[in-house]
Write a structure and sequence with these properties.
222 residues; alpha/beta; Rossmann fold; 7-stranded mixed beta sheet; two-stranded antiparallel ribbon; 8 helices; 40% helix; 24% strand; globular; Protein-lysine N-methyltransferase; SAM-dependent_MTases_sf
């Protein structure tokens, strides 16, 4: 990365054990009550991204390959499928998350591919192929909170996202831990800013800020 940024303090949210335990509970809730579980950053954030994608109809076609990184319960892709997108893949390093997403998808009679994949593994990422749209809502944040080696993991993440994105593809990233300027700086070796998807703002102490940042990157031109 071109410039150094201060790492976030480690948290259990950055560990696989936390997510396995969380999705184990969500599987039980889904089986018992039909509750699909939490939508990361709430449904408004999810809907903003889906609306933005739908508006790019001249660039993103219904049959273009789209992948969701750290798909969790898979609801982002389920909503995209309802909008008519047909080539959808969700990956997560938590087998329990994939178990839950597959169950929900099957019950809704949709055709979405969900796979257990380690985003830190070059071979596993390469095997996925290339995508027109790579989407992440919260996974980069979780990686950034790893208690032991977040810097190295962030570097691997950025390299592997670059590897899976088509040359003319779009990388859509939503974060609650990093600002727009921090994200642009961290990704600058491989990506450049395409646009920022507007999110709700707040004003405090005379300054305006956002709870989350949704940003769209394209690959750097070589």
């Amino acid at each position: 990365m071109s410039d150094q940024i201060e790492e976030l303090e480690g948290s259990e949210l950055g560990t696989k054990d936390f997510w396995e335990a969380s999705y184990t509970r969500e599987i039980e809730n889904y089986r018992d009550h039909g509750d699909v579980g939490e939508v990361w950053f709430d449904e408004d954030s999810q809907n903003r991204i889906i609306t933005w994608i739908a508006r790019q109809e001249d660039e993103i076609k219904a049959n273009d390959p789209i992948i969701d990184l750290g798909c969790g319960n898979g609801m982002m892709l389920i909503e995209l499928a309802r909008e008519g997108y047909t080539d959808l893949t969700g990956i997560d390093y938590s087998p329990k998350a994939i178990e839950l997403s597959k169950a929900i998808c099957k019950d809704q009679d949709l055709n979405i591919s969900y796979k257990v994949t380690d985003l830190m593994s070059e071979s596993e990422v390469t095997a996925l192929g290339k995508f027109k749209v790579v989407h992440d809502k919260g996974t980069y944040d979780a990686i950034s909170l790893h208690p032991e080696n977040s810097k190295a993991m962030r570097t691997s993440y950025i390299t592997n996202v670059h590897r899976m994105l088509q040359d003319d593809g779009l990388f859509i990233l939503t974060s609650c831990n990093w600002t727009e300027s921090e994200l642009v700086k961290s990704f600058s070796d491989f990506f450049q800013l395409r646009t920022v998807i507007p999110t709700p703002t707040f004003k405090f102490g005379g300054k305006v800020g956002s709870v989350v940042t949704s940003i769209v990157f394209v690959k750097n031109r070589t």
